[in-house]
Task: structure prediction
Amino acid sequence: MSTDNNDTQDNNEEVNAHAEIESAEPESADVETEALSEVEALQEELAFAKDAVLRAQADSINAQRRAELEVEKARKFALERFSQDLLPVVDNLERALEASSGSDGDGISAVVEGVELTLKSLVDVLSKNGITPVDPHGEPFDPQVAQAMSMVENPDVEPNTVIAVMQKGYLLNDRLLRPAMVMVSKAAS
Result:
């Protein structure tokens, strides 16, 4: 009987060992599944972090570009106020030339010549600094660069044509600094 007991005990141990092995296999499968899901989660986090870094770099580059553009724009138009203050000086010199053009005399002609040279040098300085005149005489009226002061019937020209420029306009680097003051033709009524 003791051999039967031993055999039974051995069989029980074998069955228990077999059961432990079988139960251990699902546990290791669960561990593997958990490890795989953890790796996938970490890979997703890594991809998200890489994306966030790329976006941050792009934002940084865009901010730097915007800042460079703002600095360039500030540099380009820094003289705007100064330029606007100079324009009446040009206007007065032009008016002085117009007023003195009917007079004769040696003294006056010397003054006129001096004013002409002064005006020319001032206009050259303005031009060198990106300030250009807008003189739309004879052109179709453009409200982007001119301001109509009055409308006059004139059958000799097309309606909505600039027939007189009372004051030139000016551009600073192709941006309107001051609109031209003009008279515009209209159709006869």
Observations:
- Residues 130 and 174 are 8 Å apart (CA to CA).
- The helical segments are 2-76, 80-100, 106-128.
